[in-house]
Specification:
The chain has two domains: 2-112 and 191-315, TIM Barrel (Alpha-Beta Barrel); 117-184. The chain is 44% helix and 12% strand. It has helices spanning 2-9, 40-53, 59-68, 85-97, 117-127, 136-139, 151-165, 170-184, 196-204, 224-242, 262-270, 303-315; strands spanning 19-23, 26-27, 38-39, 55-56, 75-82, 103-106, 132-133, 146-147, 208-211, 248-250, 275-277. β10, α11 (262-270) and β11 (275-277) form a beta-alpha-beta unit. α5 (117-127) runs antiparallel to α7 and α5 packs parallel to α8 (170-184). The chain is globular and about 60 Å long.
Length: 319
């Protein structure tokens, strides 16, 4: 029944609408500190629903067919950002079990033992024995001291710190992250991101690999040369690693105008990317820019609500 309804709002051919879903992590079990991350059992259910309702296709194929007007009805792509190790260890077996494909956008500078700055904040506050942390001298006098007695308070602290430093220049932000980690006394993990070997294994398993810059900066805050180095550097690394062209790209953070600019898009096009995705909420149609495709994630946890969200999003005006 739902598949038929979805076909009405996402028909085949020139009037097709494309859904692109975005994920980051699939954890083996619930994380009491980062509760919004999807876990294996939930992702397994979700993949079952997608397999029942949609034609899940590779991103490069649907982007081409979208502009040609030859998409099948209920076309959908699954994407993951950043390159977390659980994409390989947890998400990949589930995708394969359901016969689904996905595209994984890799922040190449953090492969093989690296760690994203936000994860350093999370793990520093997770692992500390402190129950109170005053960072006013570092983050500003208006930044309230952090209470850290339990998981719920640490969740609030993580959000507060990340929100405060997210849009700083990369070097300044990393300096602050390093100092926060030092003050907490936490031992930070070095196995959160995939290894180069795991990226190659994902590709051999039939998944698509795309670039996501070297260090996940806010591209709109960089000069043109720095943005080109970030985007092009990740592309060249992956092409050497996989021995094939890499034509798919995801803008870090991905909000148009705020996180990336028209200049960012022009750089991606000039470097040879054929398809790029954003985090603008919505669906695409034949008139959508292949270098600015929207993505979204329906967070509903029940089959009925998830299906309703997918249906209602497909009814919205394409981006």
């Amino acid at each position: 029944m739902l598949a038929s309804l979805l076909g009405l709002v996402s028909p085949a051919g020139p009037r097709a609408r494309l859904s692109v879903l975005i994920f980051h992590r699939v954890k083996a079990r619930r994380d009491e500190l980062i509760t919004e991350d999807i876990v294996a059992e939930q992702f397994d259910s979700l993949c079952g629903w997608l397999a029942d309702w949609f034609n899940v296709l590779p991103l490069d194929q649907v982007a081409r067919r979208l502009s040609e007007g030859t998409l099948p009805q209920r076309a959908l792509c699954i994407t993951f950002d950043d390159g977390y190790a659980d994409n390989h260890d947890v998400a990949l077996p589930i995708l394969l079990r359901h016969g689904l494909t996905a595209t994984f956008f890799i922040t190449t500078g953090f492969l093989d033992g690296g760690r994203m700055w936000n994860d350093s904040v999370i793990e520093a506050l997770r692992g500390t024995r402190l129950e109170r942390l005053d960072l006013r001298d570092l983050l500003g006098e208006d930044f309230a001291p952090l209470a850290l007695p339990g998981a719920s308070e640490r969740r609030v602290a993580v959000d507060a710190v990340i929100d405060r430093i997210k849009y700083l220049a990369p070097a300044e932000r990393q300096k602050m992250v390093d100092e926060i980690a030092r003050r907490t006394g936490s031992v930070l993990p070095d196995d959160l991101m995939m290894s180069s070997r795991q990226v190659r294994a994902m590709r051999r398993a039939g998944m698509q690999i795309g670039a996501h810059t070297l260090t996940h900066p806010i591209l709109a805050r960089l000069d043109a040369d720095s943005a080109r180095a970030e985007i092009g550097g990740s592309k060249r690394f992956l092409e050497a690693l996989l021995d094939e062209p890499v034509t798919l790209f995801a803008y870090p953070n991905g909000k148009p105008g705020r996180d990336f600019s028209d200049e960012s898009v022009a750089i991606a096009r000039d470097l040879g990317f054929e398809t790029a995705v954003t985090t603008a909420w919505g669906v695409a149609d034949r008139n959508s820019d292949r270098l600015r495709l929207p993505r979204f994630t329906p967070w509903e946890r029940t089959r009925l609500r998830f299906g309703a969200r997918m249906f209602n999003t497909l009814r919205t005006r394409p981006v």
